[in-house]
């Protein structure tokens, strides 16, 4: 069980009835965008979670490696680098809508000449990413004409998080520390202001990392900083590069960290920590799986 | 071949050395102790060292992180100092060290290539990969300088350009495969953070072996202090001796790169510290340089940890930022060895501009631009744009093609002016550091946190370029500075620019995509307005150049001739420099700092036989513009929908061209 929402069947149902009901009025209302191009991964993940496959995504190979779920269909095209998405391809594809996300130094207005653009300001400020993700999901749902899918996603995410909390309720859980390996000497730890932190709060789990974080709710620190979190349970987000594995095998510091000695380090499959509600739901259930089996 | 450096060794006496080293050691110990007491009270140090209580955070970090870091800074510093001493001895070159002869950049490129193409190699053969890359790059540098009897300035010039090319190639790898980006960046900045004794132990063994090998080489190395003839008459082959010494030095430097990354300038400074302390023999220098290098890196590493910055500066960046000015300071000590007269072999036939040539040039430009507008790749592969398609794609392709054309031509004009002015055929805005100055301006803008719009970028770039120019003018006024010294100064500046850029890139700032694209040279954001600006600047400089033609003809003949012909030297130099510098700054904003077009185009024009100022200027503008336009078209199409930064593409061709040029000079 990866995510607890069941939009495909629901969508099939709603799609059938909805299309029937809406058909006579299509001529009046502007039709919702079908061909959507996403300049980077957060937008692509959110559009997918509303049941629409983007026609093109920036850095497709990177999406497959760092975001993974929801899986993009084979027909989605690569737009080129996220810093310089190919303008010629955008021109050729002629999308109905271009979605950009805050933080990539791209002027959204520059893309207006190809199609209407939509700015997804996740996570423009650090206050409650989860609430922001809910808000943005609704807003995006309206823009894409997928209000029902958005509503379903909101409910489904709540339900998945609640189910995960119940699964973990009777366990006396140690504080957690969530991180990704940056290289073999540096980690990116998720703390206050990150979506993962908000999900931890909703799962009644404590984050052992209470230090100051960057604009994106992360701290990039040396491995030695893990010594300060005592016997927290380390949970690593995949992918883990080979030389990080080698470091864990060889480093005397790593092996002597209180947290490493207290619990075996576990990992959860790749997910995009800067994503939307689908990521929140996926993270909640993956973490529950991880802690139940630990 | 005695350099000023060897004479300076004899100045002070040895007794001064021991107290000085001890005092510096004392300072390092004090700094380290201050930091360590923050971690752990003094009374627990012994037990933390011998049998740490790993449940105690302070003791754990003391034993497994802080101490290994101190140890690795000492061992890596000693290895670099030793390598530097051997490099300087074998090459008889006071500026030789792992970073200036290309070893470090070569090793880094090899590691980056392996990370992307064959990651399994890094599991077991990390050092072999680094040594292979370092040795190849060093061999290339030495081969280039060999025919000029390893002239010190030429060797370092070749070394720095090989490093630039390796750096461009590494950057290209990053563009093609972003997964390893952060890792490569951190590697390039040389972080000494440790998490255990494994790295230190490994590197210490290498240092001991290296030291033993170097000890075995003491006598042969001393023979190298004689000239090659005398060495031969003693029955030694200077080449074999050099090769043996270089092998040890390359191996040591590559081991350091494989262990902690690129740490520049420690190997340069350490032997000079040894010299200043009065180490006269090679054996003495070896020991003193190792000690000096160890102390220097130890001190720098402690320093970056106590600096009150929000994010720690990687130690390798700190040494580069401290070391590049040091290189500048050391320059006047070196004798000028390269001939200062410009103009390559006049063997090629002399051509004048024929009446038909402007038409042919216009036609070629038109064909190039048409090609770059019409032929492109799309979803279905290569195709020619038809009439209707052209209308849609023209607004996307035209600004880029025009900006590339104009910027290339502007750089070529700027290069011609500078080569004529300095009488140095190796000079160009890129090589003199004017482009780097512009880049530093923009990076500083970035670091300060000002919004990066076109206007502020142009202002910052112009300020940086003009400051650099001013510094070059001042330096050029000093009699002790040969044109080659100025080249070297320019390349040191680009090292500072690279260091600053690495700092920003490793910081994880979300805007790095943009900076990275700009630094590697990209026309992605070009607008029609940019194209118009660049075109106007080009037209202005082309129209103004006939006014300078007489000066440009006379200046390369030398100062005395110029003065006797009644050229107001100061005014003329200043106005030409100003024109060349402003051009370079403008072009840098449009296509980034890495290009080499300003170097290649004037040389190519000269090579084709256009030796007189105006023909050379116009032909080189034409060649520069067309080259850049073709490169821009390639950069847009070869890995569509991805884009190769046009600057990197040209640097990969231009760097080797530069090396070939200096290699073939007699």
Structural summary, described in words:
The complex is a heterodimer of chains A (294) and B (666). With 294 residues, chain A is of the alpha/beta class. Chain A folds into two domains: 88 residues, Rossmann fold (3-Layer(aba) Sandwich), CATH 3.40.50; 133 residues, Rossmann fold (3-Layer(aba) Sandwich), CATH 3.40.50. Chain A contains eleven helices and ten strands. The N terminus of chain A is likely disordered. Chain B folds into two domains: 236 residues, ABC transporter involved in vitamin B12 uptake, BtuC, CATH 1.10.3470.10; 292 residues, ABC transporter involved in vitamin B12 uptake, BtuC. Chain B is globular, with a radius of gyration of 26 Å. The N terminus of chain B is likely disordered.
How widely separated are the two ends of chain B? 18 Å
Order of SSEs of chain B: HHHHHHHHHHHHHHHHEEHHHHHHHHHHH
Class derived from helix and strand content of chain A: alpha/beta
The major β-sheet of chain A equals: 5 strands, parallel
Strand content of chain A: 5-15%
Helix content of chain B: over 70%
Give the strand order, joined by hyphens, for the main sheet of chain B.
1-2
Discrete helix count of chain A: 11
CATH fold-level topology of the largest domain in chain A: Rossmann fold
Give the overall shape of chain A.
Answer: globular
CATH superfamily (homologous) name of the largest domain in chain A: Nitrogenase molybdenum iron protein domain
Number of strands of chain B: 2
Return residue spans of chain A where pLDDT drops below 50 for at least 5 consecutive residues.
1-29
């Amino acid at each position: 069980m990866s995510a607890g929402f069941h939009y495909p069947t629901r969508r099939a149902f709603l799609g059938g009835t909805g299309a029937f009901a809406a058909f006579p009025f299509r001529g009046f209302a502007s039709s919702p965008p079908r061909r959507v191009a996403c300049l980077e991964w957060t937008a692509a993940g959110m559009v997918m979670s509303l049941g629409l496959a983007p026609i093109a995504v920036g850095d497709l190979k990177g999406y497959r490696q760092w975001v993974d779920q929801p899986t993009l269909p084979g027909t989605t095209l690569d737009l080129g680098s996220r810093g310089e998405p190919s303008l010629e391809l955008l021109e050729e594809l002629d999308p109905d809508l271009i979605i950009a996300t805050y933080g990539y130094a791209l002027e959204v207005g520059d893309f207006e000449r190809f199609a209407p653009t939509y700015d997804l300001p996740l996570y423009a400020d650090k206050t409650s990413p989860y609430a922001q993700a809910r808000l943005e999901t609704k807003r995006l749902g309206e823009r894409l004409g997928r209000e029902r899918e958005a509503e379903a996603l909101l409910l489904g995410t709540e339900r998945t998080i609640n189910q995960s909390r119940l699964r973990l309720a009777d366990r006396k859980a140690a504080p957690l520390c969530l991180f990704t390996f940056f290289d073999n000497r540096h980690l990116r730890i998720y703390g206050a202001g990150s979506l993962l932190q908000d999900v931890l709060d909703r799962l009644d789990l404590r984050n052992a990392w209470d230090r100051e974080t960057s604009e994106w709710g992360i701290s990039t620190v040396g491995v030695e900083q893990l010594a300060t979190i005592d016997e927290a349970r380390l949970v690593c987000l995949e992918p883990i590069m080979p030389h990080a594995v080698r470091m864990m095998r060889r480093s005397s510091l790593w092996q002597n960290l209180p947290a490493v000695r207290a619990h075996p380090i576990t990992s959860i499959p790749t997910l995009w920590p800067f994503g939307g509600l689908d990521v929140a739901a996926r993270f909640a259930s993956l973490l529950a799986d991880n802690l139940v089996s630990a | 071949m005695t350099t000023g450096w060897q004479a300076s060794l004899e100045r002070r006496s040895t007794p001064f050395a021991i107290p000085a080293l001890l005092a510096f050691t004392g300072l390092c110990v004090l700094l380290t102790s201050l930091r360590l007491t923050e971690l752990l009270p003094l009374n627990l140090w012994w037990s933390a060292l011998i049998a740490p209580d790993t449940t105690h955070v302070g003791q754990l970090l003391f034993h497994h992180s802080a101490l290994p870091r101190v140890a690795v800074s000492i061992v890596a510093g000693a290895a670099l100092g030793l390598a530097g001493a051997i490099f300087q001895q074998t090459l008889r070159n006071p500026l030789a060290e792992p970073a200036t002869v290309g070893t470090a950049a070569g090793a880094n490129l090899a590691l980056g290539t392996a990370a992307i193409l064959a990651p399994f190699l890094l599991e077991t053969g990390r050092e072999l990969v680094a040594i292979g890359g370092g040795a190849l790059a060093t061999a290339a540098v030495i081969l280039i300088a060999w025919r000029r009897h390893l002239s010190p300035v030429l060797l370092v010039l070749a070394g720095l350009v090989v490093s630039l090319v390796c750096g461009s190639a590494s950057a290209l790898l990053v563009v093609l495969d972003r997964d390893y980006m952060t890792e490569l960046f951190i590697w390039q900045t040389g972080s000494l953070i440790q998490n255990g004794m494994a790295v230190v132990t490994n590197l210490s063994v290498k240092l001991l072996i290296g030291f033993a090998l170097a000890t075995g080489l003491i006598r042969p190395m001393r023979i190298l202090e004689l000239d090659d003839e005398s060495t031969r008459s003693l029955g030694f082959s200077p080449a074999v001796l050099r090769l043996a010494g270089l092998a040890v030095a390359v191996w040591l430097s590559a081991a350091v790169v494989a262990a902690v990354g690129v740490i520049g300038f420690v190997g340069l400074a350490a032997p000079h510290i040894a010299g200043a302390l009065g180490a006269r023999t090679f054996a003495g220098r070896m020991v003193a340089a190792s000690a000096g290098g160890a102390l220097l890196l130890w001190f720098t590493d402690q320093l970056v940890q106590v600096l009150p910055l929000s994010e720690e500066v990687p130690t390798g960046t700190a040494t580069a930022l401290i070391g590049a000015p040091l290189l500048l300071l050391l320059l006047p000590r070196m004798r000028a060895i390269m001939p200062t007269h410009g103009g390559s072999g006049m063997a090629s036939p002399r051509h004048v501009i024929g009446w038909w040539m402007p038409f042919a040039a216009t036609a070629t430009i038109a064909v190039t631009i048409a090609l770059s507008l019409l032929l492109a790749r799309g979803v279905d592969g290569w195709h020619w744009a038809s009439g209707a398609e052209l209308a849609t794609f023209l607004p996307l392709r035209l600004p880029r093609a025009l900006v590339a054309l104009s910027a290339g031509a502007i750089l070529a004009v700027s290069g011609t002016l500078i080569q004529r002015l300095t009488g140095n055929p190796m000079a160009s805005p890129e090589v003199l550091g004017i482009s780097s100055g512009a880049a530093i301006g923009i990076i500083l803008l970035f670091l300060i946190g000002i919004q990066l719009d076109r206007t502020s970028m142009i202002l910052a770039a112009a300020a940086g370029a003009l400051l650099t120019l001013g510094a070059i003018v001042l330096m050029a006024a000093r009699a002790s500075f040969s044109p080659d010294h100025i080249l070297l100064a320019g390349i040191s500046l680009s090292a500072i620019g690279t260091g600053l850029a690495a700092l920003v890139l490793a910081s994880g700032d979300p805007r790095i995509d943009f900076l990275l694209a700009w630094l590697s040279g990209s026309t992605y954001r070009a607008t029609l307005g940019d194209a118009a600006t660049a075109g106007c600047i080009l037209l202005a400089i082309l129209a103004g150049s006939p006014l300078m033609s007489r000066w440009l003809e006379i200046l390369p003949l030398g100062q005395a001739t110029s003065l006797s012909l009644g050229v107001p030297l100061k005014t003329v130099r200043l106005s030409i420099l100003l024109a060349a510098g402003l051009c370079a700054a403008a072009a840098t904003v449009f296509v980034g700092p890495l290009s080499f077009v300003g170097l290649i185009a004037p040389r190519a024009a000269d090579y084709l036989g256009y030796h007189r100022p105006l023909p050379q200027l116009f032909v080189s503008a034409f060649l520069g513009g067309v080259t850049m336009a073709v490169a821009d078209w390639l950069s847009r199409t070869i890995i569509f929908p991805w884009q190769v930064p046009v600057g990197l593409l040209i640097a990969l061709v231009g760097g080797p061209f530069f090396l070939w040029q200096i290699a073939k000079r007699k």
